[in-house]
Design a protein that fits this description.
Number of domains: 1
Largest sheet: none
Distance between the termini: 22 Å
Number of helices: 12
Length: about 260
């Protein structure tokens, strides 16, 4: 992988991790178009680096929220921070279960299957449109909501289903405040990303001995800074009910991906 490809894939990861257009789907499409011939272990290492970059950008954006949550936890009381943390844990369970027991089956859906990605992008488009039409409320995410949102996050492990789009849309359709839905969506993924990074790094599936560090570093920086931009932008857009524009975008890309899949 050269520097230009690393920059392109890094920017795609950073933008699409937060914008509701499916990072996994866009990476699969980009790899198919760029003709990515990386060895599986090299490709996995690069993916891990990009995911760590976006997790770090989330931590930077929500550093005050995370600090407040940690401070509240150490008070050892049934306060808002403890309740929020428990909701985060509940939301992680479905995706953790799928990741632990069905990882091999899930990985078979990755690898340039742009037809499947295109179909799932159409599903994402429908979810975003329904969320955009939902009424505004001031409701907080409840414990039962956290479980349902967690199921949406697990489904979003499929390439082409936007994680942020699925979780924010589900939360909004459950009647939650849109800005609170976005905050919960972005914070709930940080432990999962860090856990996935640790699992892949320590599981012996990747090796850094023959890795080309220049593209890795460039890709990391591209994903980190584009992630900072996209996360900030997404929070504003959710508040202003602008998800329909992403719905149109996902529908267009989905149709293009399906056409590309049939032609190849």
């Amino acid at each position: 992988m050269d520097i230009i490809d690393a920059i392109i894939l890094g920017i795609i990861q950073g933008l699409t991790e937060f914008l509701p257009v499916s990072s996994s789907g866009h990476l699969e499409i980009a790899k198919a178009i760029l003709g990515d011939k990386s060895l599986p272990k090299d490709s996995l290492l690069f993916t891990v680096v990009l995911h760590f970059a976006t997790a770090l950008s989330t931590i930077v954006i929500f550093r005050k929220d995370i600090a407040a949550i940690l401070k509240g936890l150490f008070q050892f009381k049934w306060n808002e921070e403890l309740q929020f943390s428990l909701k985060i844990i509940l939301s992680m369970l479905p995706a953790t279960f799928i990741g632990l027991f069905y990882e091999a089956e899930l990985e078979t859906l990755f690898g340039g299957n742009v037809l499947f990605v295109g179909a799932m992008l159409l599903v994402t488009a429908a979810l975003l449109l329904m969320a955009d039409l939902s009424k505004k409320t001031s409701k907080n995410v409840s414990f039962s909501n956290a479980v349902v949102i967690g199921v949406s996050q697990a489904i979003a492990m499929l390439p082409g289903i936007s994680r942020s789009g699925a979780t924010i849309s589900t939360s909004v359709m459950l009647g939650n405040d849109k800005s609170k839905a976005a905050r919960f969506s972005f914070l709930m993924v940080v432990p999962l990303i860090l856990g996935k990074v640790a699992k892949d790094s320590l599981g012996g599936e990747i090796s850094i001995e023959s890795a080309n560090f220049a593209p890795m570093l460039i890709g990391f920086l591209a994903a980190f800074f584009s992630g900072l931009f996209a996360c900030t932008l997404m929070i504003r857009l959710v508040k202003k009910s602008k998800l329909k524009y992403f719905s149109i975008y996902c529908a267009l890309v989905g149709v293009i991906a399906i056409a590309f899949g049939f032609m190849n």
